[in-house]
TrEMBL record:
Protease found in the keyword field: yes
Name of this protein: Hydrolase
PANTHER family membership: NLP_P60 DOMAIN-CONTAINING PROTEIN-RELATED (PTHR47359:SF3), PEPTIDOGLYCAN DL-ENDOPEPTIDASE CWLO (PTHR47359)
SUPFAM superfamilies (UniProt xref): Cysteine proteinases (SSF54001)
All residue ranges annotated as the NlpC/P60 domain in the record: 278-417
Presence of keyword Magnesium: no
Coiled-coil stretches noted in the UniProt entry, renumbered to this chain: 49-125, 185-273
UniProt KW keywords: Coiled coil, Hydrolase, Protease, Signal, Thiol protease
Amino acid sequence: MSRAASVRRMTALALLAAVGAALPGVGAAVPPPPPNPSDAELHAGRAAVQQAAGQVGELANRLAQAESRLLDLQTQVELKMEDANKARVDFQRAARAHADARRAADAARADADAAARQVEQQRSRLDNFAASSYRQGSRLGSVTAFIGAKNPQEMLDRAVFLDAISDSQLNVLEDLERARVEKVNKDSLARAALQEAEARRLEADRARVAAEAAEREAVAAQAAQAEQARRLEADKAVVEAQLAEARSRVAGLEAQRDRYEDWQAARQREEQAAAPTGRSVEVVIARALSQLGVQYAWGGGNAFGPTRGIRDGGVADAFGDFRKVGFDCSGLMIYAFAGAGIPLDHYSGYQYQAGRQVPLSQIRRGDMLFWQRGGRVHHVALYLGDGRMVEAPYSGSRVRVAPVRYSGIAPYAVRMF
């Protein structure tokens, strides 16, 4: 570097330092930016919230249906329990009626047997009396005269000649026979009532068994439905917790984005307030655009304009760059930013580290764009806005304006203002 160039460079640096020291915020330590979640992270978080909310809604509907079914089953259980209670009461009543009928039948049978015995005893006494009369020479020819008679009156008709038998004895026998017939009829009715009571008892017992089985089935169905409702409630609680977590995460990401945007706005205001007079983006851009059409020369260009290129032992030599006066990509940046008093090294890798790196989503007019391969910077251009840039592209070409190429572009632009 010539002595004159060295003097000019030192003067520019001194002027820059003096202007920076005179402005507030320049040279002060800048706090690092807060975390800035990506749009993809925010989108994924919101999608997770939407999905969890949908699951909560679906489970809430299913739970409402399950609870409605549970209430219906509870009503059925109560009805079945009442049916079973009725069947038990009916069975108990039928059992008591059967027991009463059995006791009545037993009493009727005993009465009939007692009456038959009394009739037989009275007949025996009559037989004895007739035999005694015959032995005493009564007009009764033989006891066989009245044996086999169907009733007392027939016996009397056959034995009218037997004066020794009194009317009172005949009346007793007739009364006994009538009582025996009534008790036999009562016994028959009692046995019929017992059979009917037994049939009703068996029917009531079958109804009781069926009602108790229906009650058990209803209780089991209710228990199964209650378990299903419990599982749905547990699943809903889990998904609600996931929804709350997803909402909290999204809220946290959105809060981070808000803080980052606030930090960025404050930084931009600080930069605008601290920008020294004459350090103009438009000056830099104007100097770069003033060199449109100047040929590419590898290694060419400095703060004062195009210079002769140098040998590279390869492509540049093949195009004769060492014989041309022009710019390479980093040389054009040196010339453009020198108009604002900002010195740059003639190496795109160092230029990538010269200013503040900003995400490509936030680039603005006057930022430098870089391209990498394998993590190494190999090209630089000046962003003009609206997706266009000015660059010295490659050997054999000239300084030009072109659309921004995003293939291989570095993730950050460099801002010098």
